[in-house]
Design goal:
With 111 residues, the chain is α+β, with helices and mostly antiparallel strands. Helices cover 45% and strands 18% of the residues. The model has no long low-confidence stretch (mean pLDDT 86).
C-alpha cells in the first residue's frame, strides 16, 4: 500500500500572531491507497471536514511519500550499481548523459 500526502493552496492560515493572515499551502492529511485516486477517496471519507470546509476537492494536490522499505530498496540498488558505473563513467570520458549522474544523485538522496 502506498502513502500519499494531500495539500492545497486554497485558503489562509494564521501565524502565532493571529491578527495576520498568511497565504500558503495547507496540509490536509495523509492517506493510504494502491493509487493516488484511491488514497484521495480514503482521505475524503476519513476527513469529511475537508469538503465541509469548502475546499475544492479538484484543487487538492497529492504527492506520494516514500516509505522506509522503498528507500532501502533504492539504496540497495544504487549501492549495487554504483561501483561498476563509477568505473565505467571514468573509462568512457565522462559523458554528461551517463547513468552515473543519476546514481550519484540517488546515492546522496538516500544518505
Amino acid at each position: 500500500m502506498n502513502e500519499y500526502i494531500f495539500y492545497t493552496t486554497e485558503g489562509y492560515t494564521y501565524p502565532p500572531k493571529e491578527d495576520m493572515e498568511i497565504e500558503n499551502c495547507q496540509v490536509l492529511g495523509r492517506a493510504y491507497g494502491e493509487t493516488a485516486k484511491e488514497a484521495k477517496v480514503n482521505l475524503l471519507q476519513r476527513c469529511p471536514w475537508i469538503q465541509e470546509s469548502g475546499f475544492d476537492i479538484e484543487e487538492i494536490i497529492c504527492k506520494q511519500l516514500l516509505n522506509d522499505d522503498t528507500k532501502e530498496d533504492i539504496r540497495t540498488i544504487v549501492q549495487y550499481l554504483f561501483v561498476d558505473e563509477h568505473r565505467h563513467f571514468y573509462e568512457s570520458e565522462e559523458p554528461s548523459d551517463h547513468i552515473y549522474h543519476t546514481l550519484l544523485r540517488l546515492k546522496e538522496a538516500c544518505n
